[in-house]
Amino acid sequence: MKIDENKDFLTDLLFPKFCFNCGKEGNYLCPDCFALIDVLEYQFCLVCGKRVIDGKTCLRCRPKTRLDGFYFAVSYQNKLIKKLISQFKYKPFIKDLSKTLASLIITHFYLSNKFVFFTSEKSILVSVPLNRKKLKLRGFNQSEEIARELSQSLEIPLVKQGLIKIKNTRAQIELSKEQRKENIRGAFLCRDEKQIKNKKIFLVDDVFTTGATMEECAKVLKSAGAREVWAITVAKE
Length: 237
Hints:
By secondary structure, the protein is α/β, with parallel strands linked by helices. It has one domain: Rossmann fold, CATH 3.40.50. It has helices spanning 3-14, 31-34, 79-89, 97-111, 132-138, 142-154, 177-184, 212-223; strands at 43-44, 51-52, 69-75, 123-127, 164-165, 188-189, 200-208, 228-236. The chain has a four-stranded parallel sheet with strand order 3-8-7-4. It has a two-stranded antiparallel sheet with strand order 1-2. β1 (43-44) and β2 (51-52) form a beta hairpin. It is globular.
């Protein structure tokens, strides 16, 4: 048995996982309950919601966003999805849920036959960053954990700290759409433009609500020379 497998075996033995929906032991989301979730087979324009090919922002909406396209796996209206993400982001901060949440995105790519879309030497993953205070409280960046799982499955590199957060902001959930834009303005910085220049970037977060955070990140990345910036999230509000 390999060291990692042995470690996982001991962890599961000491801290068994139970399905968040039915309570069955073994996984945070058992196969039967996973099958109950309506994982999307198609992509939609992030601005107007119209079904589009390959997730690309539709022609009419491109002047309204800095994001070239958008992939999300499920609707955030699903109560089970809300519960999983809440337990991931808020206490008790179950870090290992990143595997379950990333698997929803991978299933979306599988159903929509989009794996080939990521096979490019100029493709990289970048996660939406946290400020130091939140990172210290949670112990991990939830977006980076999901991106790490995607990196392994898609076999494209994750650029850690491709973006850093340089401004403490209020929780976006407390704010209106316009307040969110102002709150997040100037909050991010690209530390190493060499890793970003001419790259096709897949920007990873957990939930897409108004898109203010993703838009601000995309603005910074494109200013640093990114060729394209695509959003990837588990769910969309």
